[in-house]
Design goal:
It contains eight helices and eight strands; from the N terminus they run E-H-E-E-H-H-E-E-H-E-H-E-H-E-H-H. It is of the alpha+beta class. A hairpin with a 4-residue loop joins strand 2 and strand 3. The longest helix has 17 residues. The chain is globular, with a radius of gyration of 18 Å.
Length: 225
């Protein structure tokens, strides 16, 4: 499907090997719920690389680009938790862009996603919609970095080992398998682009934050008979 809002925050990073499981627990249990509690944050997805890198990719979908510079978001960034302070120095090769969505179209969410980071406006901006005709492709998105929202200095940034890279444009192609995505992207004939394919690892939305991890259904007593 199309992205849920008119903006995204796209984040790529590697981690030192010993921090990966702690990162996943922090991301699942604290960081994503914290972000989705901020007004304007709609959905979060974490993906792990199956081809290329960095190893992890996180996509936050926002109602509008101003959310990425809002007081609600900046207050969180400037008051990192102890767990966040412990995790951030373990990040490596981090890239981060707050982007406006130029266009987004699709039939649903794919289990796999290719990200393409580029500078300048290449020909793929015209080709991307055509990929929706290819087998196994379910969504395509094209986003442009907002330098104002991306470049704000925050307390969280001071805990990272190096400055974040900031791609100018981000394309995303979602599909049912890495092979389908790879077949589609050969048509783009890209040069000087950072390309990786990711598998979905975790997804949460504002609905999940509002309801919490409470069980639904008939209840455990009913299930036990």
């Amino acid at each position: 499907m199309s992205l849920r809002g008119d903006a995204v925050i796209a984040i790529w990073q590697d981690l030192v090997p010993e921090a990966k499981e702690d990162f996943r627990e922090w991301h699942n249990r604290q960081h994503v719920p914290e972000r989705l509690s901020i007004p304007g944050f709609l959905r979060a997805r974490r993906l792990v690389a199956v081809q290329g890198g960095p190893e992890f990719y996180t996509l936050y979908e926002l109602d509008q680009i101003d959310t990425a510079a809002s007081n609600g978001y900046l207050n969180r960034l400037n008051a990192p938790t102890e767990w966040t302070r412990r995790i951030m120095p373990k990040f490596r090769n981090m890239a981060r862009s707050a982007c406006s969505v130029v266009f987004s179209m699709g039939l649903g969410d794919g289990g796999f996603m290719m990200t393409v980071r580029v500078s300048g406006v290449p020909g793929l901006v015209d080709i991307l919609p055509l990929l929706m005709q290819d087998p196994g492709i379910v969504s395509v998105h094209w986003c442009a970095t907002d330098n104002r929202a991306s470049g704000i200095e925050t307390k969280e940034k001071t805990f990272r080992s190096s400055a974040d890279l900031m791609p100018e444009y981000v394309a995303m192609i979602e599909g049912t398998s890495p092979e389908h995505i790879q077949d589609a992207v050969t048509r783009l004939r890209l040069r000087d682009a950072d390309i990786a394919i990711y598998r979905l690892e975790h997804c949460a939305s504002t609905d999940d934050v509002e309801t919490g991890p409470e069980p639904r259904g008939a209840g455990l007593e009913h299930a036990r008979g």
